[in-house]
């Protein structure tokens, strides 16, 4: 049976559907995160969509795992380990062979470079890709803020914290 969103329950009830709805989230290869990241790093998509999908995966993971600390406020590897099942709910959200992971267990971008995460709170996690040059902190990096805003090249590497605060849009 296909997954039914709560919004569709009313229409099924009104249409006289007798079968019980499937309230489980959709899964791809048995993993919820794989469904969200099914097009991750596909050649016909921009990196911005990859980072947005990964952000959505992290938010969905946090909703399912719940608790005080569903997503570790640490390094890439700690976040990846939680997504692989070492979390309070023991929920494996991604398979070890996910296209979003490398052999070292790090979340990676489409160029195979480990992503950089900055978590100011559990709900506010920025994600940064090193870009095609595979070097962090260069002009081709792609940085997605927790609120969905992508930093422009001139905002990527400010000379000082004052520069960063003065160019950051109000959101």
Provide structural commentary.
The protein has 171 residues and is an alpha+beta fold. Helices cover 31% and strands 9% of the residues. It has helices spanning 6-15, 32-36, 47-65, 76-83, 153-156, 161-167, and strands at residues 116-121, 124-129, 142-144. A hairpin with a 2-residue loop joins strand 1 (116-121) and strand 2.
Low-confidence stretches: 1-13
* Gyration radius, rounded: 18 Å
**Strand line-up across the major sheet:** 1-2-3
Indicate the proportion of strand residues.
5-15%
CATH class membership: Alpha Beta
Q: SSE order, as H and E? A: HHHHEEEHH
Looking at the structure, the CATH topology is Glycoprotein, Type 4 Pilin
Structural class: alpha+beta
On the 0 to 100 scale, the average pLDDT is 82
Instruction: List how many beta strands DSSP finds.
Output: 3
Number of domains: 1
| Helix proportion range | 25-40%
So what's the overall shape? globular
User: How does the major sheet shape up?
Assistant: 3 strands, antiparallel
CATH architecture: 2-Layer Sandwich
Distance between the termini: 41 Å
**Secondary structure tally, helices:** 6
């Amino acid at each position: 049976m296909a997954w039914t969103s709560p919004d569709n329950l009313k229409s099924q009830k009104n249409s006289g559907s007798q079968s019980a709805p499937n309230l489980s989230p959709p899964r791809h290869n048995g993993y919820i995160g794989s469904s969200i990241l099914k097009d991750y790093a596909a050649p016909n998509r921009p990196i911005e969509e990859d980072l947005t999908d990964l952000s959505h995966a992290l938010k969905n993971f946090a909703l399912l795992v719940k608790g005080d600390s569903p997503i570790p406020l640490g390094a890439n590897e700690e976040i990846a380990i939680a997504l692989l099942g070492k979390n309070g709910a023991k929920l494996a959200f991604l398979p070890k062979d996910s296209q979003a992971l490398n052999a070292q267990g790090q979340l990676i971008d489409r160029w195979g470079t480990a992503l950089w995460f900055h978590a100011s709170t559990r709900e506010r996690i920025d994600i940064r890709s090193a870009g095609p040059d595979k070097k962090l902190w260069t002009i081709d990096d792609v940085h997605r803020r927790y609120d969905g805003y992508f930093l422009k090249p001139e905002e990527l590497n400010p000379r000082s914290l004052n520069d960063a605060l003065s160019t950051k849009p109000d959101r």
